[in-house]
Design a protein that fits this description.
mainly alpha; two-stranded antiparallel ribbon; 18 helices; 2 strands; 1% strand
């Protein structure tokens, strides 16, 4: 593969690597007979059997656990593929693949570096914080992809009205996965970024900026409207009251939500990623303005989600996996800024990562 080809087609290379490592196995996994996946798939099959796309049931009893988007994907997938595992995860492969392409193209355009763009795409698609959820019929992969796609939309929102529209539409769609809470958190990230860049007042006072917000709210509300209109009492009692307002607490500490994002979710690139972040913070004053601006974007986008799930009384490591996109963009920026001065260090760290991965794979195969 020539350097010219890599510079010209980084998104094709990164998405191709991710697809080759995932798509051949998309239909091999056996669905777990328990847990959340079983619930969602069972509900979707019941809905499909009744010819109903929005009224959620479990054991033929009205029961609303999550937003409508995942169920729509499941029903459509079952119609398209039949009773195969691919019908329950195809959307994850498509959305993560789309996110890889978006991130790579965006990073190359902003930073002008094909090598690090490819690194970002491959690392994002194949890290432990994304790959397992790609093969899981849950909403995490959808949220991971949407948060990643929101990064360039937010970054360009100050210069492009279309980007502002895209950001709010992505936020609205994110609210259809698990909960409208994710739309709110993404929106707060946007407002935090605009406040940090001095454009908040404009976003709050001009129709040009309020219309995209209204569009995102409309997109989110439209997905819940059928269930609200046709099954109001059950929808309010189960989804709104039980699943949203009465969520129970657990005894997990705040680090249960945040530490995995900065540790094993980065596997097998934990060592170089943490080193890059540390060196990037150390050298922050020497970074160029474009790098600082992009770091500010991903930090603002991620902050509301990280803070909320760290202080919410029900804490889980999966609630912060949507932050993998912003985190890995930050890691790649710091790696690019540090590599020239610490090339030998990163050679050792990447070599150690390969050894750790090989040992882990050997142990797994031995079991």
């Amino acid at each position: 593969m020539t350097p010219e080809f890599m510079k010209k087609y980084p998104a094709l290379i990164a998405s191709g690597v991710v697809m080759l490592c995932t798509w051949p196995f998309a239909n091999l996994r056996i669905m777990r007979p328990g847990g959340d996946e079983k619930v969602y798939v069972s509900q979707a099959l019941e809905m499909l059997g009744r010819g109903d796309w929005f009224v959620q049931t479990l054991a033929q009893e009205p029961n609303y656990y999550k937003g409508p988007l995942h169920y729509l994907f499941l029903i459509f997938g079952t119609r398209l593929f039949g009773l195969q595992n691919i019908a329950t995860v195809y959307m994850n492969f498509l959305l993560v693949g789309l996110a890889v392409v978006v991130l790579v193209k965006f990073y190359q355009k902003v930073q002008g570096d094909a090598d690090h763009s490819i690194w970002l795409g491959v690392t994002f698609g194949l890290c432990a914080g994304v790959l397992p959820f790609t093969f899981s019929s849950q909403m995490e992969a959808e949220l991971i992809a949407l948060y990643a796609i929101a990064i360039p939309a937010l970054f360009y929102s100050r210069q492009s009205h279309k980007a502002e529209w895209l950001f709010w539409l992505v936020a609205g769609i994110a609210g259809l996965t698990k909960s409208p809470l994710h739309a709110v958190l993404l929106g707060l990230g946007g407002y935090l970024y605009w406040a940090a860049t001095g454009s908040l007042i404009q976003r709050l006072t001009t129709w040009r900026s309020l219309l995209p917000l209204a569009g995102g709210i409309t997109a989110c509300c439209a997905g819940f409207l059928p269930a609200f209109l046709y099954d109001m009492d059950n929808f309010l009692n189960t989804y709104v009251v039980r699943e949203t307002l009465s969520k129970s607490a657990n005894r997990h500490s705040w680090y249960r939500a945040l530490v995995p994002v900065f540790s094993y979710n980065l596997f097998p690139w934990i060592l170089p990623s943490l080193a890059a972040l540390g060196l990037g913070i150390w050298r922050f004053g020497k970074l160029n303005s474009t790098t600082k601006s992009l770091l500010l974007t991903v930090l603002c986008l991620a902050a509301p989600t990280a803070v909320f799930f760290a202080i919410h009384p029900y804490r889980s490591s999966v609630y912060c996996v949507p932050l993998m996109g912003p985190l890995l963009v930050g890691v790649t920026l710091c790696l690019q800024a540090s590599l020239e001065h610490h090339r030998q260090l990163f050679r050792y760290l990447f070599g150690a990562s390969v050894m750790v991965f090989a040992i882990a794979l050997a142990v797994l195969l031995a079991l």
